[in-house]
Amino acid sequence: MDRVARETHRRFSAKVGAVTREAADILSIELTDPDGALLPPFTAGAHIEFHLGNNLIRQYSLCNSPAERHRYVVGVLEQKDGRGGSRAMHRLRTGDSVEITEPRNNFPLAGREANSHLLLAGGIGVTPMMAMLAELESRAADFRLHYCTRSPAHTAFNDRLRPLIEQGKVVVHHDGGEPARGLDIAATLAEPVPAQHVYICGPQGFIAAARASIGAWPPHAVHFEHFDAVPLTAEESAWDKVPFKVKIKRTGELIDVPSNCSVVRALRAHGIDIETSCEDGYCGTCITRYVEGEPVHRDTVLSQEERKSYVMVCRARSRSPILVLDA
Questions:
Q1: What are phi and psi of 149, to 5 degrees?
Q2: If 0-12 CB within 10 Å is exposed, 13-18 middle and 19+ buried, where does residue 229 land?
Q3: pLDDT of res. 284
Q4: What is the pLDDT of residues 28-81, one digit of tens each?
Q5: Smaller CB count within 10 Å for the chain: N or C?
Q6: Rounded Cα gap, residues 325 and 5, in angstroms
Q7: pTM for the complete prediction?
Q8: Whole-angstrom distance, CA of residue 232 vs CA of residue 255
Q9: What is the number of other CB atoms lying within 10 angstroms of the CB of residue 37?
Q10: Which domains does the chain have, with CATH numbers?
């Protein structure tokens, strides 16, 4: 089948090393090169993509130090009501072979423009921040992490965090399942600090509470990582009713994208293969280059600069009658 041109990252086999119970329903899974070679480098906040068979593709954040080239470590929460990816990951055992991609980073740390860093993590949202903590420590940077969990039993990476907790650099909040008893997000984000950057990752309710509290912060200083879909606004949803066409540059084929049909579904109906995972605009698997047209971007991954050249075809629509994909 044809494949639309998209930003691809090399896929390769890795070997499962240690599998460690970190907290209730949370495992950390170590990956190494089968021949002991160094793995491709990554930066704090990056994730890798797992190809688990039967078209099951999932992304998990790297939670070890970027200085560790001999291994990758991911943290995985088993979601009982999920679509099967986390259950497949929890079945991995030491010595298993898995296919992964090179790391990609949609959630990088700020550079010298940041004098300090404030990190807010909800539940499994702490995983990318574990790599951030290692990087910030190596920089001798000023930072603080607020880590919100249900209970001590649901708090992952205790051994790694304990020294930072004792130093006051990490504060853990247990809410017993009632968010109002945990971190006061509105108060924490009420006053922006000059040259401070904020990083927020967690479940949708956690993200929504943070978004409702950042109005006074400059947009460039606030960074989000999503683990599930962000609800569309009424204006964004209205574009579902607007049909358009997609043109494949290489062949000139014009494909109708009807109302209430995604670009992915329309392309697949014409034998054009698109790899997807979330199909809700937050994972980055389906990022595709376009060369003409005006997309309606409805994802939470692409930067404003990236949106000038790329589109996430699982959720995007088009303002222009024709959107030309580079294929």
A1: -135, 170
A2: middle
A3: 80
A4: 999 999 999 999 999 999 999 999 988 788 899 999 999 999 999 999 999 877
A5: N
A6: 8
A7: 0.81
A8: 25
A9: 9
A10: 9-101 (2.40.30.10), 116-226 (3.40.50.80), 234-325 (3.10.20.30)
